[in-house]
Amino acid sequence: MENIIILGTGCAGLTAAIYAARANLNPLVLEGTQPGGQLTTTSEVENFPGWPEGIDGFELMDKLRKQAMRFGTRTEYARIDSVHFGGDVKKLVAEDGKTFEAKSVIIATGASPRLLGIPGEKELFGGKGVTTCATCDGAFYRDMEVIVVGGGDSACEEALFLTHFCSKIHLLHRRDELRASSIMADRVKAHEKIEVHWNTVPLEVLAGDDGLMRAARIKDVNTGEESELESKGFFIAIGHIPNTAPFANELETDHNGYFIPEGGSQVKTRIPGVYVAGDCADHVFRQAITAAGMGCQAAIDAERWLAEQE
Q1: Quick check: is 133 catalytic?
Q2: Where is the FAD/NAD(P)-binding domain (predicted)?
């Protein structure tokens, strides 16, 4: 039986592993289908402390992984299908039937951005024009025209943030009224840099000869008319899907599927010895540095809890 099992290898999971390993807990990290998490799809990370010139997302995660391994972290590939946290021994069952047992567990499985599923979206994702994070990538589109897709608070926040960098923001919304809060919607409609395209959906992201985005093919849902909208950036802001489904029968989640921490803590759950960290429990900030901070908290809490049990 393991002292501690950590699920996920993004910033939260690997930071937790570093702290747990340095505490001589000999952590086992279970990797899923995307080792390194969402940052591995980001070409440049400029807002992670300690890298004044920025760092490639894949390189950053590779360095975090090596740091965790240096202190004794072990890794194994497994996709967890179900968990049983009822007793002193926490059991995790993988899709292939293998069962893992641990005294404590840190769940740092992250969240997956909702995508549109249109042509060009995946091909131009990550440094070529398509992104899901204005905070991460907005500065790369300084003085350029960009597109934001969505109509909720997230899309409005992205659009307003991008006004600090971009010359113009085209907000595409499939309805004739924003779903965002009134204050947020009013700010968007009043901003001189933002043009809202009502009743409009994107059909395709188009690349130029240089392999980077040059435009989007869009459609008016009322008239059926199609056209091209020139743009260098395509920001998808239609929400995220937290990777929490295998744990829903054991841990409390909100109506969007995010874990709900207990007792005023960011990382503790209702089950002693089980902790959450990163984007699977954070639908507000969703940044690499905040995920790392939660991973640190979870590992320290787990270490203290394990010491109390002894």
Answers
A1: yes
A2: 3-295
Using a pLDDT cut of 70, give the percent of the chain over it: 99
3.30.460.20, 3.50.50.60, 1.10.443.10, 3.90.226.10: CATH of 2-113+240-309: 3.50.50.60
| Cβ neighbours for 201, distance < 8 A, ≥ 6 positions apart | 172, 174, 218, 219, 221
* pLDDT value at residue 36: 76
Inter-CA distances, 123 with 10, 33, 106, 126, 142, Å: 23, 19, 33, 9, 22
pLDDT at 227: 97
Separation between Cα atoms, residue 113 and residue 16, nearest integer Å: 23
Please give the model's pTM, rounded to 2 decimal places.
0.79
Task: Render pLDDT for 135-186 as a digit per residue (tens, 0 to 9).
Answer: 889 999 999 999 999 999 889 989 999 999 999 999 999 999 999 889 999 9
Catalytic residue among 11, 136, 156, 280: 136
Start-to-end CA distance of the chain, whole Å, equals 15
Is 136 marked active-site? yes
Q: Which of the residues 11, 137, 166, 282 is marked catalytic?
A: 137
pLDDT above 80 (res 232):
yes
Catalytic, out of 62, 88, 133, 176: 133
Task: CATH number for 130-236: choose from 3.90.1180.10, 1.10.287.1700, 3.50.50.60, 3.40.50.510.
Answer: 3.50.50.60
